[in-house]
Specification:
The protein has helices spanning about 45-55, 70-80, 95-110, 120-130, 145-150, 155-165, 180-185, 210-215, 220-230, 235-240, 245-255, 260-275, 275-290, 295-300, 310-320, 345-350, 355-360, 365-390, 440-450, 485-490, and strands spanning about 1-5, 10-15, 25-30, 30, 40, 60-65, 85-90, 135-140, 170-175, 200-205, 320-325, 335-340, 405-410, 415-420, 425-435, 440, 460-470, 470-475, 480. It is of the alpha/beta class. Strand 13 and strand 14 (about 415-420) form a beta hairpin. Helix 9 packs across helix 16 and helix 9 (about 220-230) crosses helix 18 (about 365-390). The protein is globular. The two termini are about 20 Å apart.
Length: about 500
């Protein structure tokens, strides 16, 4: 059993999925969906966690969060669809108006009378007296951070509401939020008034590569990786791509099309949360262009070095930028690089942000740039893909639990992938080449030379080497060689 979400008609459809189905054609309420690609969204672990808590005999309080467009709302609506619930989407309005709106909408949905009140306590007291609580009732408040930013006491008020009222009843309270920083620092953190109250939390992450492919069943694995390089694992973005069209045509119809959501989504995301949007874009563009140290980023983005830290902290809180440390060294205050952490922003900054005038006048100019440069862009994306799939490949290093995967660099030396297992003293060095007809021996000799500079259990470690490529003209018996066919099997 699984579920499908039809983005065109905004419906989720529960179906039995059979491997023997000849087509992806379904009927729902006499609507023919044969010309729509229905996307299977695998959120089974999250749904199971919610269902298990719903069946418990205790009141439940869940925090659910994750970046915008990740599918939080769809997940919760799916979970609550067959149960008594009330869903409310918060607005960044004065809290008195929000309480009034909550009152009105609840009364309308359940056809009950609720007296006007200026406090949530009074409102929920009335509601709990009038609803049927023989089965657990679900209260869902979406975008709770809007209230936090508009009315700072709201977190303390909800602590009191839970402690003194809601937890005494058969209810399931769910607070959702797209601001990861607010949810983690204001609601989940130790100093938050709500700390210790929640009975569970879910951070909703992007879909993994296997489920990215489920959106594009007619694409070969190379094009699946190319799409992942453009939008990552965000369902809302993936549904814009049609696997009946070539990759470049999809880019033309989305990123390079002023009417498409992908054309302006980056600006919308930042403008919702930040004021100096162009400053933040310039910082991310500097990182995308190769600036990885604080001084380099400040110089390339033309920002005073004394101010750059606050901008980078904001971008990291939003999840758009990350710090990366060498895998074999413990984190140190200065031993890290800044990297972009979002494929949609990476692509947008590379092929939309610098070319807005060209997109207005002649989109073919940008398509020519894409055709010429995308293989280079895919180089680092391919490294990420290989890291994700490494555990699914036949490598002895991963027979023992506890293997860590990362990147390593020192001065001018860098190795794409390094995996280490402390217990076995095993280490894997790997290079990733987004190229066809790679000669493995040439890559291997360079990889071995670089590996000598990595200091880690030098006298006792057991070394392994691997090369990833689109294809090989010559493999090597002295290392593992994985091509796209191998990676396609790892996706299954």
């Amino acid at each position: 059993m699984g579920f499908l979400f039809c983005y065109t008609c905004n419906m989720e459809i529960v179906i039995n999925i059979s491997e023997t189905l000849p087509t992806k054609t379904f009927m729902y309420s006499n609507v023919l969906l044969s010309n729509m690609l229905l996307r299977f969204i695998n959120r089974k672990p999250e749904l199971n966690a919610l269902e298990k808590r719903y069946e418990s005999s205790d009141p439940e309080f869940f925090i659910i969060y994750g970046r915008r467009r990740i599918g939080k709302t769809e997940l919760v609506k799916k979970f609550a669809s067959t149960k008594e619930h009330f869903y409310f989407l918060a607005r960044e309005e004065p809290i008195e108006l929000e309480i009034e709106r909550y009152n009105k909408k609840f009364a309308e949905k359940f056809n009950i009378y609720l007296e006007k009140t200026r406090e949530f306590e009074g409102l929920f007291k009335q509601i709990l007296e009038k609803i049927d609580l023989r089965k657990k009732f679900i209260f869902i408040i979406d975008e709770f951070p809007f209230w936090v930013s508009k009315h700072k006491p709201i977190v303390s008020e909800f602590q009191y509401l839970w402690d003194e009222l809601l937890k005494k009843y058969n209810v399931f309270l769910i607070l959702l939020g797209s601001s990861v920083a607010v949810m983690e620092h204001k609601i989940l953190a130790y100093k938050s008034p709500l700390y210790g109250r929640r009975t569970g939390q879910l951070k909703i992450l992007p879909l993994n590569l296997k489920h990215v492919r489920d959106f594009l069943p007619h694409y070969d694995v190379k094009d699946v990786f190319r799409v992942y390089g453009a939008v990552g694992g965000i369902p809302f973005y993936l549904k814009e791509f049609k696997d009946t069209q070539a990759f470049n045509k999809n880019i033309e119809n989305t990123f390079l099309n002023k009417a498409s959501i992908l054309y302006e989504e980056a600006e919308i995301l930042l403008r919702e949360k930040l004021r100096e949007v162009n400053t933040y874009f310039n910082i991310m563009k500097a990182i995308d262009d190769g600036a990885t140290k604080l001084s380099e980023i400040a110089s390339k983005s033309q920002i005073d070095i004394t101010n750059i830290n606050k901008y980078l902290s904001t971008l990291m809180n939003l999840g758009f930028v990350k710090k990366e440390y060498p895998i074999t060294q413990p984190p140190k205050p200065r031993n890290f690089l800044y990297r972009l952490n979002d494929n949609y922003f990476k692509f947008w900054l590379k092929y939309v942000y610098p070319y807005k005038e060209e997109i207005e006048e002649d989109v073919n100019t940008v398509l020519m740039v894409l055709e010429r440069e995308y293989s280079v862009y895919m180089g680092r994306i391919f490294e990420d893909v290989c890291k994700m799939l490494l555990r699914n490949l036949t490598i002895t290093l991963f027979e023992e639990p506890g293997t860590r995967i990362g990147t390593w660099w020192h001065k001018d030396k860098e190795i794409d992938i390094v995996a280490v297992n402390e217990k076995r003293k095993d280490i894997l060095f790997a290079e990733c080449k987004w190229k066809d007809k790679v000669i493995a021996e040439n890559v291997l000799s360079q990889l071995k030379e670089k590996s000598r500079h990595l200091k880690w259990h030098n006298q006792e470690r057991k070394e392994h080497f691997a090369i990833f490529a689109q294809s090989f003209s010559e493999k090597s018996k002295d290392c593992l060689c994985f091509d796209l066919k191998d990676l396609e099997r790892a996706l299954r």
